[in-house]
Specification:
This protein has about 400 residues and is mainly alpha-helical. The protein is built from 16 helices and no strands. It has one domain.
């Protein structure tokens, strides 16, 4: 496939971002399946552990969700090209807050129930368990939680808190500033220096553990908030993407070297460890963006369909893994066979559920999907450019 950049329009869809999002979602499913089999704490655990999975999962843990948050930030910049700020805010409430609430009351409770049964803390059917959700006692003491949907909560918070910034960037002065920033980012390796805010966040807030509870999680929220803003910045600077494509081979080489230095188990002094880890993450993101932009030029029908199902897949996948994985624990098979069975079965089951959701009009908004009528009426050229 030719790597020559095709002409880009202001409202183009981004098949490269769709492809990267799809890869991140697949890795997310693989990661959460692996959580059943490693030695880390999780909702349901196999008695036969596979600690060999842990080095790969450690790398995946630090890459998959940051990439998704960055792409979501890019998506806000693309969405604001064709929406007013008020329309954007309403759309985010509909596509993020609505599914989050639906997930907390419908999708997540089965995970909590299965875990309670698995650990011997509850004996009874799901109908007996479910009313405890409405006690609103936060997990793990109670049954009320957003579990893996923390990402949706953090993304919604980022969107709301960034509205004044988005308004300022839409002014003439804001556009002039963006022009100067874009020019600076397109020179040499300047774009690589954007890892610095991530490193500063990691150093200043290093004493705060990762909780995914939002209000007591400043380090994690700061990390993902910065990734969101960096994605939004690059989404507003289209010339930077062509610059990344030109630098893609150098980016790959430098990323590989830094990856080889930082990934093996070794202890560096605190500042060096944080700087190296955040630089490795940022260069990984830039490298992935550059190569996807160069190679993924056409939005194939399968990619369009996968993009539509990616959000409901994210919402559903962990519940399916926990429930099916718990049932499969009784199978008389070895750990690798069990891992393969859970991985393949839950992926297929989650995909099938997403296909079902897509065909039920009243369910579509519960999973952040547009109404079918709206999709059919939207022109193909403007249909996308939207990321969750």
């Amino acid at each position: 496939m030719s790597t020559t950049a095709a002409p880009r329009t202001a409202d183009e869809h981004r098949p490269d971002l769709d492809w990267l999002r799809g890869v991140a979602i697949v890795l997310l499913h693989l990661f959460h399946t692996g959580m059943m089999f490693n030695t880390w704490d999780w909702h349901v655990k196999s008695a036969q552990a596979l600690p060999v999975l842990e080095p790969v999962m450690e790398v995946m843990h630090h890459l998959r969700m940051p990439l998704l948050m960055f792409i979501s930030g890019v998506g806000t910049a693309l969405a604001l090209r064709r929406r007013s700020l008020g329309g954007f805010a309403a759309d985010r409430a509909k596509r993020l807050l609505g599914p989050l609430l639906f997930g907390m009351f419908v999708v997540v409770p089965p995970q909590v129930y299965v875990e309670q049964v698995f650990r011997g803390r509850f004996h009874g059917g799901y109908a007996e368990f479910y009313p405890s959700v409405f006690d609103f006692v936060p997990y793990p003491a109670g049954s009320f939680s957003w579990h893996h949907l923390w990402f949706v909560a953090y993304l919604f918070a980022c969107c709301v808190l960034s509205l004044p910034l988005f308004a300022a960037l839409g002014t003439a002065r804001g556009q002039a500033l963006l022009g100067r920033v874009e020019g600076w980012l397109c020179r040499g390796w300047n774009v690589a220096w954007l890892f610095a805010p991530l490193a500063l966040n990691g150093l200043l807030l290093r004493g705060y553990p990762e909780t995914h509870a939002l209000f007591d999680d400043p380090k994690t929220f700061g990390h993902y908030g910065l990734l969101f803003l960096l994605g939004h910045l690059l989404g507003r600077c289209p010339r930077v993407w062509d610059h990344l494509v030109e630098q893609r081979r150098a980016l790959l080489a430098v990323s590989a070297v830094l990856f080889a230095v930082m990934v093996p188990d070794s202890e560096f002094p605190l500042v060096a460890e944080v700087l190296g880890a955040q630089a490795a993450l940022w260069l990984f993101i830039l490298t992935a963006l550059a190569w996807a932009r160069a190679r993924i030029l056409v939005r194939r029908p399968w990619l369009r369909h996968a993009q539509e199902l990616s959000y409901p897949f994210y919402i559903l996948h962990q519940t399916v893994i926990v429930v099916v994985g718990y049932v499969f624990l009784a199978l008389p098979v070895g750990p690798w066979a069990l891992f393969g069975l859970v991985l393949v079965t839950t992926f297929g089951a989650t995909w099938a559920l997403c296909e079902g959701v897509a065909r039920v009009p009243w369910l579509r908004p519960c999973f952040g999907m547009k109404p079918r009528a709206a999709r059919a009426a939207a022109p193909r050229a403007v249909e996308a450019g939207h990321t969750a």
